[in-house]
Amino acid sequence: MLQHDVGQATANIMLAATDLGIGSGHSAVGDQEAAQRILGFPDGHFCVYMVALGYPADPPLRPACPRTEPLPR
């Protein structure tokens, strides 16, 4: 997996969350042994990023440009 792809996916998760009024924060994972111990993922796998999601207490997030029409499908 390319780091660029993971970064792009992380950015899109965070943008989509913001559009829904959900706050987010990301962090790279440097200690893979601690991450595996805490998160319990199997050997041979690794954790590149973690994204925390939650509703902010104040002020609520709003989209930068509110939509007036639904997105095309």
How would you summarize what this structure contains?
By secondary structure, the chain is an alpha+beta fold. Helices cover 34% and strands 16% of the residues.
Helices and strands, with pairings:
Elements: H1 3-19, E1 23-28, H2 32-39, E2 49-54
Antiparallel strand pairs: 1-2
Radius of gyration: 16 Å
pLDDT < 50 stretches: none
Overall shape: elongated
- Record the strand order, biggest sheet: 1-2
Structural class: alpha+beta
| Strand proportion | 15-25%
Mean pLDDT across all amino acids: 85
Number of β-strand runs: 2
| Count of discrete alpha- or pi-helical segments spanning 4 or more residues | 2
Q: How would you spell out the order of helices and strands?
A: HEHE
Largest sheet: 2 strands, antiparallel
Fraction of helical residues? 25-40%
Distance between the termini: 28 Å
Describe this structure in words.
There is one protein chain. The protein is built from 2 helices and 2 strands, in the order αβαβ. By secondary structure, it is of the alpha+beta class. The chain has a two-stranded antiparallel ribbon with strand order 1-2. The chain is elongated and about 45 Å long. The mean pLDDT is 85.
List its salient traits:
73 residues, alpha+beta
